Amino acid sequence: MLQAGINSAESRTTGRIRVHIEKKAGKDPFERARAVFETYSLNNSTDKNCVLLYVSTADRKFVVFADDGINTKVPEGFWKHVSDSVTGKLKDGEFSIGLTAAVNLTGNMLAEFFPPVSENKAAR
Amino acid sequence: MKLQMIVVFIMSVIFSTALFSSDSVPYRKSRYINDYASVINDKNAGEIMLLLKRFEKRTGIEASILTIGSASDYTAGKEGVDVLAANAINEWKLENNGILLLVAVADRRLKVELGQALAESGEEKFQEIINNVIVPYFKAGDYSAGIYEGAKAMTQSFSSHRNSSKTQGPELLIFILIGGAVLLFAIAGISFIWGRNKTRKQLVKQPADSGKKGYGGGAVGDW
Question: Are B223 and A77 an interchain contact pair (Cβ–Cβ within 8 Å)?
Answer without folding.
Answer: no
